[in-house]
């Protein structure tokens, strides 16, 4: 019986068709979120949450801004239209509230971002008032001072504030900081101080042989805006009256005042070179005679000399014939001008001063009227290179910065007198008590 062998190894097996799903529907990515929101009334909860958040931001006040008391018995006068903050008197102190938006409340997270600012010479007369304004508007301030003319007492009221730092440092040496703005005020500005160490005075503004100007170098490295406080002394004994910013001056380069005059002129040159060559944002202010609380009592400047002498019952010393003229601005006006210049878009230079012009005899008479009508006037030989006339033309500042001084001499002088009398007679009382105890 025969058998039939069948070899099935190479038979082709039937292969099932590959699985092919339905093509995706393009509108599902839109429909699914809508179905999710409509399911279980989720959309209602979303609208309720938005309404509650709106109610909270409308009814609750914005975050409280801390109050910083400035220990000056008389605040300097300011115009409400030009001040970026309000001033409220509390027990003889000045409470400063930054007013970021006078039109309404500002929700949390939408306030003006505070800047990080360094003020060289910030413990000095002008610098400390500038620090008060910057702190009052909510900025973080680093004061750099070697205390050659500055006083720690001028900024002590900020010591407990986390936004305030004080560094004892001489700007002749390098300094590394991360800041947004630099106000460069560090230099002895009174004749007594800059004549005491003329070499250091000019070094404070010019590079030593192997080093660039440190604060301009810092501004270049960190991209900060740099403001140089220059001086009316760059005009020397001017042949033009009043002085405009385009006037190049009449300076004696080898006189006793040249360390200060030429130092400031060189500082302006370096500032503009950094601006043109390195792209540093710079501002230049030429400051005219300024007075007010916290001035050094015996710094040799005419206003502080007259006030201190009148309080001490000493003769008011007038040098020369007393016909030399000066213009005197109150410190609050200067600080306002510096801040407007820094925040503005113009490089400068800008004259910042009060165009009201007084002879030295007229100033002595105003001091007599304010302090002691019986005070005597004593004439002495004039000092070398003393300018005969000094008056700023502030047309440029009025037009481009919207700035002009507000405080006349007869209103500002009493505030300075109060500060000087507290310090002079306070020192006398302390010395008397220490002598008696000894």
UniProtKB/TrEMBL annotation:
Task: List cofactor names only.
Answer: NAD(+)
Record field: transmembrane: 42-60
Domain NAD(P)-binding: start-end pairs = 119-416
* Xref: SUPFAM superfamilies: NAD(P)-binding Rossmann-fold domains
Q: Which UniProt keywords apply?
A: Decarboxylase, Golgi apparatus, Lyase, Membrane, NAD, Transmembrane, Transmembrane helix
Q: In the Enzyme Commission scheme, what number(s) does this protein have?
A: 4.1.1.35
Annotated GO molecular function terms are: NAD+ binding; UDP-glucuronate decarboxylase activity
Coiled coil where? none
The family this protein is said to belong to: Belongs to the NAD(P)-dependent epimerase/dehydratase family. UDP-glucuronic acid decarboxylase subfamily.
The entry's function note states: Catalyzes the NAD-dependent decarboxylation of UDP-glucuronic acid to UDP-xylose. Necessary for the biosynthesis of the core tetrasaccharide in glycosaminoglycan biosynthesis.
The name on file for this protein is UDP-glucuronate decarboxylase
What is the organism of origin for this protein? Olea europaea subsp. europaea
